[in-house]
Amino acid sequence: MGFLDKLKGKKVNEATPEISKSTNFESIVNRISCEIKKIVDKDMALYLPHVKSSELEDGGAVFYMNGQNGTEFDWYVNDRLPYFMVFYSDKDNLGAVKLALYNTGEVQVYLYGEKGKKLIKTEKEYLDIDKTDMLKLATALTHEADDKKIWDKNIDNIYMDIEITDDELQDFSSREKYHAVMKNKLNICNLSAVISKRIIEEGWKVGYMERNKPYDKDDSGWFFGSGDEDDEYLSDTKNLMLLSVGMVWQRLDSDIFKYIDMPTGTKLIRISSNEFEIDKNDKEIYMQKRE
Fold first, then answer.
1. Residue with the larger pLDDT of the pair 280 and 129
2. How many C-beta atoms lie closer than 10 Å to residue 2's C-beta?
3. What are the residues facing 225 on neighbouring strands?
4. How far apart are CA 192 and CA 244, in angstroms?
5. What ranges in 190-283 are assigned the alpha helix state H?
6. CA proximity to 82, closest of 109, 101, 104, 106
7. Mean pLDDT across the stretch 220-225?
8. pLDDT band with cut points at 50, 70 and 90 for residue 241
């Protein structure tokens, strides 16, 4: 689709705490837990000094939020552990602190004021943890939290002072392949796509989707249209926008997610309220508006 070329190149709208490396697994797990608490306490003292422990759930306890996806999913799909959270104790129960610990040892901290309604600060730090110890931590949290159906609990209530055997580590590592498809799809969601304004402005769901050769590393190659655009409409770049694939999926049409990892050259048409099939030019496009 030559009109895509007109859009290509546009863009979609203190000291670091250290953990000494150790071959003692019991020590490294507990020390990582302590470091997480230290980072939370330090950042709250700096950026939320007016917040008292009495205003926080369980006096400011750190909760391990594995209930949504689980440790294994976040580890292999999002390259991190589930979030560690501190919550306000009012009726809204929103987050005061959200901490992400990535498999590289990078720590991202988000701090929220106004009882959790406003992000006021983000911080980045690094822990000196080697990959094997990080993998052991993820394995331990899986065994002692997820496998025991302990969800979204105070980390002090999760027993992690256990020895992970080589077989257990190998078993956990072997599960990565089961998440490869989902990880690839989520990577695609971060890339840009061309979308017809009829989807955005007129409320149509995607009726036609075509994947062309990506323009660059940030381009997915996808075009999403309502399905009734003609060549005149598509030749005018004012009728087109660049959005991330993830934004199209999450905000405009969840039906596309099943298909976004299909290869370059794919052309699909909607044939029902939630299904697409390869366009063979022998069927009418099923047109549907968002509810």
1. 280
2. 9
3. 208
4. 4
5. 197-201, 231-234, 245-247
6. 101
7. 98
8. very high
